Amino acid sequence: MGFYERLRQFMMGRYGGDSLNTVLSTASFVGFIAGMIGRAAAPRSVAGLIICWVLYLVAFALMGFSIFRTLSRNLVARRAEYEWYRSHIKAPLQKRRNESKIRRAQAATHRFFKCPKCRQTVRVPKGKGKIKITCPKCGNSFVKKS
Ligand SMILES: [Zn+2]
């Protein structure tokens, strides 16, 4: 039996990888590297030593959690973790990235303001002077220079 066949059998019924595990192992790797750079940069600092060991511990814990998730047979719990991560971290970040992309694309013709009352982003055409903006979400009005 070849290596991949054995690996496939070992992984049968286990959770495997997802993008949360990718984030966990990347964060762990960054933590180890940051700790090593810190040790090299300030080898005699006691505070630096403590910070570096905290980094190593966190990195080690993240790595352990990532490996635990990959090998776990409790698929329901792992999917629930992933769903939490997707709705609380991944989706909001994606939304923010998309919004700033749209803003950059329309920066020449439009200005973007946040409603002071409900934080809704409001888009107005550029170069119209001082205008009264009415928030489409909460109906609050505010004056801005377009
Ligand atoms: Zn509003």
What would you say this structure looks like, in words?
The protein has 146 residues and is an alpha+beta fold. It folds into two domains: 3-106, no CATH class; 108-146, no CATH class. It contains four helices and four strands. The strands form two sheets. Strands 1-2 form a two-stranded antiparallel sheet. It has a two-stranded antiparallel ribbon with strand order 3-4. Strand 3 and strand 4 (141-145) form a beta hairpin. The radius of gyration is 24 Å and the shape is extended. Bound molecules: zinc ion (ZN). The site of zinc ion has 8 residues, from loops.
Q: Briefly, what is this?
A:
The protein is α+β, with helices and mostly antiparallel strands and 146 residues long.
H/E element string? HHHHEEEE
Overall helicity:
55-70%
Radius of gyration computed on alpha carbons: 24 Å
Q: Return the structural class.
A: alpha+beta
Oligomer: single chain
Total individual domains:
2
**How far from one another are the termini?**
70 Å
Largest sheet: 2 strands, antiparallel
The bound ligands are: zinc ion
Mean pLDDT: 95
Write a concise keyword list for the protein shown above.
146 residues; binds zinc ion; 2 domains
